[in-house]
Design brief:
Strand order of the largest sheet: 1-2
Number of helices: 11
Structural class: mainly alpha
Number of strands: 2
Largest sheet: 2 strands, antiparallel
Radius of gyration: 20 Å
Shape: flat
Strand content: under 5%
Length: 257
């Protein structure tokens, strides 16, 4: 596989360059389909209608929150206040309600338990594909990338997040944020930095600020490892710093709602 060409001459970066992400191939499509089958097997019970997700916060919090959102919209009211719990509480202003997270609005079209099954399955597949793409970009073989993605989405650390929807959706964006970071740090265009900002903003919109902080720290380390020596002279370093600043400000702007 060929390596990404340097945008400018001069000193070598502190960390090695990423490997260019190849176009879709038969092996890539087979890997993605394999991940889809794996996710479907792991969650075969809810997908086949033999059960629903309900444990812990799903039953005690999520069902009530999403029902308040649906009722507000059905009554042609802005979804900013939940009057059905106690003396009322914020709906829009509580990011755990995911009012500004686009998939949430599918609850207007289906029952909540059906939506939550799709929510878990699609976020699991989305995150697995993201990790596969990230591994391939970094030069990992198809088999290694598939194995890493399978371990990521079918083992305890990930499955333990199923009952906490905000952390599940926030964690799903980790590989995509790192993939976007690597693309932005290796490009001189602002478009990649904006896409990085979108991936950073998603955990905030999903109600998981702790995972947002984790992703920002990982992206910052990713950027530091790409710097050249001497730090204060290399034009590449100014471009990397600019991409990081644009991505972070754009993410905070998107999440300002």
């Amino acid at each position: 596989m060929s390596r990404v060409p340097e945008l400018s001459g001069g000193p070598k970066p502190i960390w090695g360059r990423s490997v260019a992400l190849p176009g879709a191939s038969r092996h890539t499509l087979l890997s993605v389909c394999g991940l889809g089958f794996l996710v479907a097997f792991v969650f075969r019970g809810p997908l086949l209608g033999s059960g629903v997700f309900f444990e812990r916060d799903i039953h005690m919090m999520w069902y009530g929150q999403v029902e308040s959102l649906v009722r507000s919209v059905a009554q042609f009211s802005w979804p900013v206040w939940d009057p059905w719990i106690g003396f009322g509480r914020p709906l829009w202003a509580n990011p755990n309600n995911q009012v500004l997270y686009p998939p949430t609005w599918l609850n207007l079209l289906m029952r909540p338990w059906t939506y939550y099954t799709l929510f878990v399955v699609l976020h699991s597949l989305f995150s697995a594909v993201g990790l596969f793409a990230l591994a391939r970009r970094l030069g990992v073989s198809h088999g290694g990338a598939f194995l890493g993605a399978a371990v990521w989405t079918a083992t305890g650390p990930w499955l333990s997040l199923v009952s906490v929807w905000n952390h599940l959706s926030g964690a799903a964006w980790i590989p995509w944020a790192l993939l976007a970071a690597d693309a932005a740090l290796g490009s001189s265009g602002v478009g990649h930095a904006l896409l990085w900002g979108v991936a950073l903003a998603a955990p905030l919109l999903a109600g998981s600020p702790d995972l947002f902080v984790m992703i920002v720290l990982c992206g910052t380390l990713w950027a530091l490892l790409r710097l050249e020596r001497p730090l204060w002279r290399a034009p590449r370093n100014r471009r990397i710093a600019g991409s990081w600043i644009v991505a972070l400000l754009f993410a905070l702007g998107l999440a300002a709602g």
